[in-house]
Design brief:
Elements lengths: L34 E7 L5 H10 L3 E6 L4 E6 L4 H7 L3 E6 L15 H4 L23 H5 L2 H7 L7 E6 L19 E2 L5 H4 L18 H10 L15 E6 L9 H14 L3 E4 L9 E2 L7 H23 L3 E5 L34 E2 L8 E7 L18 E4 L19 E5 L1 H7 L16 E5 L5 E7 L2 H19 L1 E3 L3 E3 L2 H10 L11 E2 L12 E2 L17 H6 L7
Parallel strand pairs: 5-7, 5-8, 6-7, 8-10, 10-12, 12-13
Antiparallel strand pairs: 1-3, 1-4, 2-3, 9-11, 14-16, 15-16, 17-18, 19-20
């Protein structure tokens, strides 16, 4: 899980700075300035009553999701948020705005590009696999997905939604499995943060990804096993693009909610979520450090997300989420110093009360939360953890794994997957002719067919990379044990999928000593992590590291 998904191949973080520009308006803006809010109705309030309250507060409804009481609203009233919050029919209003671009480099996911002393290397070769680059996919081997596909490679009827920055359907490893009919874009480009719109409407076509992150996630889940490039955990399932994130990496409430509603309405089987909803790392009901308007906005986000997640779950969607890259125990979180991460208020310290604050969607209802491990099987230093939320662990990559060996700080410790050529060109790793530039050969790969069609691949790390491994296994479970539902449907109850995923995970005990220091990896004491729990369930690994082969061979037990 990451917050800034667009990335850049440059030597220093300083070179990434971009000019700050405005989106939205300051609180003192005049009445002619138009602003956009996501407004959430109170429980039990009818759509008519909610819309009437929105209009009374000075807002105009531009889109509505009546099933969960969420409305996108524009207004020129500077006091709209205050009036909406005070309305009995409404919980609050969360504004969609940002005042600056984010660096095109994620400090966790592409840590290797910031490590000037990195020892680049190809890493251990693991023998010939089905596709040419599969020998670099240690994650598939760890979870025995290479063996699982001989039993169950996935069923085309099983649909996996990638709720992310988009999916590049033109990639040769994605195209065979891409579902055009169900794919949608819910997040129009916002020029002030995403750059110039590629199309007049600013709503990119469904099979595009100008951020790259979603394509990487999709490849891990279901890149085709076609003798080309690399293959995913479930190489024969269908991939559905649910674009709910901006190119810049922001995930606003309204697009995320609408993507989840579409997943439920369309009968998707699995949805992968590797993000958190901006602008709050933790949404709290009444944090004393927040203004009344900010408190109301967070209460609205909490309610809307819980409703949307529950809606999707009740419609048969298995929900998988990345646990987060903030190296903290979600049951005992540290002070949040990163929120809000957009808007006209700079981030400020907030003490987080675990009983009234949520990291969403990973701490939302019905979400299978996934922690990250490196090739050694150890919890990655960046990965969140804790007995309260960790369901299972999965390969997410760890650049600093292997301390004391020749694999320490090598690219091959990370997760290789599909990536858009366009994004690699924008980052400077691939030139205008499609060639990998000097210095990028250890972390970018290019495979071409006889007809000249080429696919590109790169390394990333994070719980964003762990979650799609679990989503892929969940898709294999549905493929193996799902049943016909109605004339055209096929699927499996999400609770049963989760139960089987947990039961078949490979148990892994806490390390001894249980308090793990990452000092050898160059991390300060803030990264120290205590593993609580038993072998069968603990804060680092949950019920264990997912096991694709066990998941498709162990008998399915009846649901509880």
């Amino acid at each position: 899980m990451s917050k800034r998904f667009t990335v850049g191949v440059v030597a220093t973080a300083a070179a990434l700075a971009l000019t700050v520009t405005g989106l939205g308006v300051p609180a003192s803006a005049g009445p002619s300035d138009l602003r956009t809010f996501t407004v959430v109705a109170e429980d039990g309030v009818s759509a008519d009553a909610a819309i009437a309250a929105i209009r009374a507060a000075g807002g105009t409804v531009v889109s509505r999701s009546d099933e969960v009481g969420v409305y996108q609203v524009t207004t020129d009233r500077a006091d709209f948020a205050t009036k909406a919050t005070s309305a009995a029919a409404l919980i609050g209003a969360a504004e969609e705005k940002a005042i600056g671009r984010k660096p095109r480099l994620d400090r966790v996911e592409q840590e290797h590009l910031l490590a000037a002393t990195a020892a680049k290397g190809a890493g251990k070769q693991r023998g010939k696999k089905l596709d040419p680059l599969d020998d670099k996919l240690w994650g598939l081997e760890m979870i025995r997905a290479d063996k699982a596909r001989k039993v169950e490679p996935g069923d085309r009827r099983v649909t996996v939604g990638v709720l992310d920055t988009g999916v590049d359907a033109s990639h040769p490893d994605i195209a065979p499995n891409f579902n055009w009919a169900l794919s949608r874009n819910f997040a129009p480009d916002i020029p002030e943060i995403d750059g110039e719109c590629e199309v007049a409407s600013c709503l990119d076509p469904a099979g595009t990804d100008d951020g790259g992150h979603g394509t990487h996630v999709a490849g891990t889940i279901g890149a085709a096993a076609n003798g080309f490039g690399l293959s995913g955990v479930a190489p024969k399932v269908s991939l559905v693009n649910l674009k709910g994130g901006q190119d810049s990496g922001y995930f606003f409430l309204n697009p995320v909610v609408n993507a989840l509603l579409h997943a439920g309405r369309s009968g998707l089987d699995v949805v992968n979520m590797s993000f958190y909803v901006d602008p709050w790392l933790y949404n709290c009901t009444a944090n004393p450090a927040d203004s009344p308007e900010a408190q109301a906005a967070q209460r609205a986000t909490i309610r809307a997300m819980k409703r949307a997640l529950t809606f999707a779950h009740n419609r048969g969607v298995t929900l998988v989420g990345a646990l987060g890259n903030n190296h903290e125990d979600l049951g005992d979180p540290r002070t949040d110093v990163s929120s809000p991460n957009y808007g006209d208020v700079a981030p400020y310290p907030r003490e987080i009360d675990n009983d009234s604050c949520w990291d969403l969607p990973t701490e939302g209802p019905h979400v299978i939360s996934v922690s990250s491990v490196g090739p050694s099987g150890q919890k990655a230093d960046y990965s969140n953890y804790g007995t309260e939320q960790t369901a299972v662990a999965a390969p997410g990559g760890w650049f600093r794994d292997g301390f004391g060996t020749d694999t320490f700080r090598t690219d091959a410790n990370m997760i290789l997957s599909t990536y858009p050529k366009k994004v690699l060109q924008e980052e400077g790793a691939v030139d205008e002719d499609g060639n990998i530039v000097a210095g990028a050969e250890t972390f970018v790969f290019k495979e071409c067919k006889a007809n000249g069609e080429c696919g590109y691949y790169t390394y990333l790390q994070g719980t964003s990379m762990a979650a799609p491994h679990a989503s892929g296994v969940a898709a294999l479970i549905v493929s193996r044990y799902g049943k016909q539902q109605g004339r055209d449907g096929y699927g499996m109850a999400p609770d049963l999928v989760e139960q089987h995923l947990r039961r078949t995970a490979a148990e892994r005990a806490c390390p001894e000593p249980r308090l793990v220091s990452y000092a050898n990896e160059g991390r300060p004491a803030e990264f120290d992590a205590y593993c609580d729990g038993s072998r069968s369930f603990n804060g680092f690994y949950g019920h264990g590291i997912i096991d694709a082969y066990a998941a498709v061979t162990a008998p399915l037990k009846p649901g509880r």
